[in-house]
Design a protein that fits this description.
544 residues, alpha/beta, 4-stranded parallel β-sheet, 26 helices, 52% helix, globular, TPR repeat, TPR_rpt
């Protein structure tokens, strides 16, 4: 929201509906601050519930708007967000000219939610109505419309909109940032750099622009400057009030490590930890004591792979702020490439598998796989060519909760049914490696037999052992993909068209995982690229 906008004036109490009792119970500022504090403490669901309750129980427009703006960012239940903004519009008198500007801003936020919910025709109509009837809001419309298109996966349309707005409107940080984002997602990262630089010229300390610039640099292969900017981000941790972020200085480059005790902690996704943990030994050899604080699902795998360091569940570490005195520094795990001086993709260290699988665990899952294959053989009859290819499938990422993360997951994930339809009947033994709530899709599955041994899997150490008995893993861009790559297993990535920075703008290969082949979508739907994967799989089976 713009400083000095009409919305700010309304929040200060100018002509709003609702009783004095309702307004005195909880101010918009108090609601926003409390909900944000809950998010910072890792209680997103509680915060969302509080905002929904506040919006439902009042006729006070500023309070409703505060709830709606919070929900628009953090709630993926778009029907709720839409209802909140519609309620605010109903309570604002349409006949009062003084309220026209405020209603226009609310319509922009409502259009955001409608776009996220897939109601694009109504969303576009609202955006255009505000742009045409309220010229002072054109910059706001351009920023929100382009970002809504980006989050919906329509980067090409966002670029077209932004070209018009940048031509006709005064320069703004939001427009430059969004154009940089659009070009990066269109896999034109070097072009994106120009727009991010223009945005930083307007505000050199703007965190969103700086982070976007870092991602575009990394995607363009400019690792030295990219990681130098990447490490300036505010970490995505369960709570910014956690003691290892608040009470310990953040590790920086060129700090003498000899004798220093360092706590590296999980940040962002599990895949980020798996990708970057390969750099840990270089730091551990120099430092005094090194501790990894990671989600429980990674603890056994990393303890067995890196016995030279201490590995603890991050849930346990969070509960013991008295440990702060034992450490000199803390650092998010994804900062490791920067400390190790990675300058370009060519500098990624020569690959060898860097995660360990205990022999007894490997043997256990090998036995389960053989049992499943034998059972399938009794159903289908013996394979005419002997041992069949064994293929593991992952079709969706982990469940997300915030609106931004849900939008990103929609772009990267598919469904079990869509993946199986594309792969078609194949002479292979197919195993599900899907985790989380999306594993339930197997229950409604018909057609070819797909083995599901994930009921025997407790964590990533077990998943790794299961992968060791498979010949090929096919996965969307999520943690098991990184696990297969780190183990040196043959793995095929089904990449969304706005590919993650680590896979670059183009190409089938990546220096991060030499055994990976990248299948890049050329449009929003993953269906066409999955057809390519199915075709290549049938060729692979014939070659086996």
């Amino acid at each position: 929201m713009k400083k000095g906008s009409r919305m700010v004036q309304v929040e200060r109490g100018e002509h709003v509906a609702g009783t004095e009792d309702e307004q005195s119970a909880l101010t918009p500022q108090e609601l926003t601050a409390y909900c944000q504090k809950l998010v910072a403490c890792g209680e997103l669901e509680h915060a969302v519930g509080l905002a929904i309750q506040a919006a439902q129980s009042t006729q006070d427009v500023p309070l409703i708007l505060a709830a709606g703006l919070f929900l628009n960012r953090f709630c993926s239940r778009y029907e709720v967000v839409i209802a909140v903004f519609r309620k605010a519009l109903l309570l604002l008198p349409e006949t009062e000219p003084a309220m026209a500007s405020v209603r226009g801003e609310i319509k922009v936020f409502l259009a955001d939610a409608l776009m996220a919910a897939g109601q694009r025709e109504e969303a576009m109509a609202l955006f255009m109505e505000v742009a045409q009837t309220l010229p002072e809001h054109r910059p706001l419309v351009g920023a929100h419309l382009s970002m809504a298109l980006l989050e919906a996966g329509m980067a090409d349309q966002a670029e077209q909109i932004l070209a018009v707005w940048l031509r006709d409107e005064p320069p703004s940080i939001s427009l430059y940032n969004n154009m940089g984002c659009a070009l990066e997602r269109l896999n034109r990262s070097r072009e994106a750099l120009t727009y991010y630089r223009r945005g930083m010229e307007l505000s050199s300390r703007h965190e969103t622009v700086s982070f976007g610039y870092a991602i575009a640099l990394l995607k363009a292969g400019e690792y030295e400057e990219g990681f130098a900017r990447y490490v300036k981000r505010v970490p995505r941790v369960p709570s910014l009030e956690c003691w290892f972020y608040q009470d310990l200085p953040r590790l920086t480059k060129n700090v003498p490590l000899k004798g220093k005790n360092i706590l590296f902690y999980q940040e962002q996704g599990l895949g980020d930890t798996i990708q970057f943990i390969r750099f840990l030994p270089q730091i551990a050899r120099q430092a005094g004591r090194v501790t990894l604080a990671v989600p429980p699902v990674l603890v056994r795998l990393l303890r067995e792979s890196y016995p030279m360091v201490e590995v603890c569940p991050i849930t346990d570490i969070l509960d013991h702020p008295e440990l702060a005195g034992e450490y000199d520094f803390s650092s998010p795990i994804p900062d490791l490439p920067y400390f190790c001086g990675l300058r370009s993709p060519a500098d990624v260290p020569a690959f060898s598998p860097y995660l360990e699988v205990l022999e007894r665990r490997r043997d256990h899952f090998a036995h389960l796989v053989e049992q499943a294959v034998a059972q399938n053989g009794r159903i289908d009859g013996p394979s005419p060519t002997g041992r069949r290819l064994r293929v593991g499938l992952v079709w969706a990422g982990d469940a997300r909760t915030s609106a931004e993360d849900v939008a990103a997951d929609r772009r990267r994930s598919t469904s079990f049914a869509e993946m199986m339809e594309a792969l078609g009947p194949v002479q292979a033994d197919v195993f599900s490696l899907q985790y989380g709530s999306r594993r339930k899709e197997l229950e409604q599955a018909g057609g070819p037999v797909v083995h599901d041994l994930m009921g025997s899997v407790q964590d990533m150490a077990d998943t790794a052992a299961l992968m060791e008995s498979l010949d090929l893993v096919i996965s969307v861009d999520t943690a098991p993909l990184h696990l297969a790559g780190a183990l040196g297993r043959e793995v095929w990535l089904v990449s969304r068209w706005d590919a993650c920075w680590r896979w670059g703008d183009q190409g089938e290969r990546t220096p991060w995982y030499p055994t990976m082949r990248i299948f890049r979508a050329q449009e929003l739907s993953l269906a066409p690229v999955l057809q390519d994967v199915g075709h290549r799989l049938r060729q692979r089976i014939m070659e086996a």
